[in-house]
Amino acid sequence: MDDEVRTRNESAPKQATGHEARADGVDRRSLLRMVSAAGALAAPALAAPTLAPGRAAAEEVPRPVPGIVKPLPAEWFVPRGTNAEMRWDAFRDADGESVIGRHVPVERFFVRNHTSTPLVDPDTWSLKLFGSGLRGAPTVQDPVEFGLDDLRELPSTRISALIECAGNGRSYFLSQQNQPVPGTPWTLGGVGSASWRGVRLAEVLRAAGLTGAAVDVLPTGLDPDYVAGGTNYGPVRRPLPIAKALDDVLLAYEMNGEPLTPDHGAPARLVVPGWVGIASIKWVGSIEVADRPLYSPWNTDFYRMFGPDYPTGGGEPLANQVVKCAFELAAGAQLGAGREHRLYGRSWSGTAAVRRVEVSTDGGRTWRSAEPYGGSHADDWTRWSVDWRPERPGRYELRARATDRRGNTQPEREPFNREGYLFGAVVAHPVTVV
Ligand code: MTE
């Protein structure tokens, strides 16, 4: 047992709560002017999805999500509004062999878009930095600019990191706790691990003239404005405290060894290890660096905990992800009775490497340790397996429960929050033994 036990968010740098700032803290009109001049083309026409070879005709109707460019074969993805959820049963082929190693291939990686994937021309794109936290306080009209070639000339770094939506697992609020919540009803496939290459955000900020007065940075995406319920919230943008920005944030231009693809943020995106996915702004066009706290709807109205257990106006802006587990198995999978099965899964935490994974095959009455393989990584998931020989046919509930090196573990029940963020409770995985 570690002597230092932390609960979630304790390791996160302090963020502005902004109860006073519901509206944008930035000059919206300037920002919009800048975005439209930044080289983003109109949202793409729907790409005709290609069919995976060798699939039966009846299954060959892909269900593309409007606004996502890459093909979304039904055996890899579940479409969810403007998003595509990765299927956990796609980690193994029909013989149970692993088809996904430590990192999820780009074509199988989940997509979370507030609106639609923009096609940004890498040749005319530049990252524009401005604000009171930079030397000389460059303005939005006259920013410090870096083209893709400039970024590639700065020292590069490669990291492994998970991107996970804050709403991953949201559907279990209803199905396990009878608590309806709005928003995308993700099961557990709003997460993926990849290898990212790029330049540390700290490096870019310093090259742009970072001063000691900087407090917050605000990266803004080049995707179309997010409009919901008749309100135009403007382009997707979410402030980061300078301490996190200087710590481990990457401005990535490669994913799994290849240039970023349109759906995952080309030509450059942020990768904010351990934090809710919204922090990892895709298609980043500008970064404001300010000597005061910054606000956008994404740290005031959204991505905070609201509900009876939280302060009026919401809890702190969300930061670290919680501990989770998933089986590489379909919900409702059929397994043969009287045979040995090797069950595979993965566990992860936004705070520290996973230390222990326990599995129950009897609905949570008894637990035993799963066998980890492939190493345990702080910013990545831990893969594991457990053997199970169910003797009698019937319906069973599998459960997996992980604990990280900080002692964070998964509760039986997740305290309710109105938007259904950060569901970290143990998930019941039904299977039928035949
Ligand atoms: N950045 C922009 N510009 N627009 C978006 O809609 N979605 C965010 C984040 N960055 C988003 C964005 C959310 S909520 C998540 S979970 C991740 O991107 C998803 O990254 P992915 O689509 O590459 O998996």
Report on the structure:
The protein is mainly β and 434 residues long. The chain folds into two domains: 28-290, Oxidoreductase, molybdopterin-binding domain (Sulfite Oxidase, Chain A, domain 2, Alpha-Beta Complex), CATH 3.90.420.10; 324-433, Immunoglobulin-like (Sandwich). It has six helices and 23 strands. The strands form six sheets. A five-stranded mixed beta sheet has the order 4-3-14-7-10. Strands 5, 6, 11, 12 and 13 form a five-stranded antiparallel beta sheet that branches. Strands 16-23-22-18-19 form a five-stranded mixed beta sheet, with no helix packed on it. Strand 18 and strand 19 (368-369) form a beta hairpin. The protein is globular and about 75 Å long. Bound molecules: ligand MTE. Residues 109-114, 163, 165, 221, 223, 236, 264-265, 277-278, 280-283 line the site of ligand MTE.
Report a brief summary of the structure.
The protein is mainly β and 434 residues long. The protein contains six helices and 23 strands.
Write the layout of secondary structure elements.
Elements: H1 28-36, E1 77-80, E2 83-86, E3 126-130, E4 144-147, H2 148-153, E5 157-164, H3 171-177, E6 191-200, H4 201-207, E7 216-221, E8 227-228, E9 231-232, E10 240-241, H5 242-247, E11 250-255, E12 258-259, E13 269-271, E14 284-290, H6 297-300, E15 324-327, E16 333-335, E17 341-348, E18 354-360, E19 368-369, E20 371-373, E21 382-388, E22 394-404, E23 429-433
Parallel strand pairs: 3-14, 16-23
Antiparallel strand pairs: 1-2, 3-4, 5-6, 6-11, 7-10, 7-14, 8-9, 11-12, 11-13, 15-17, 17-21, 18-19, 18-22, 20-21, 22-23
The structure holds ligand MTE.
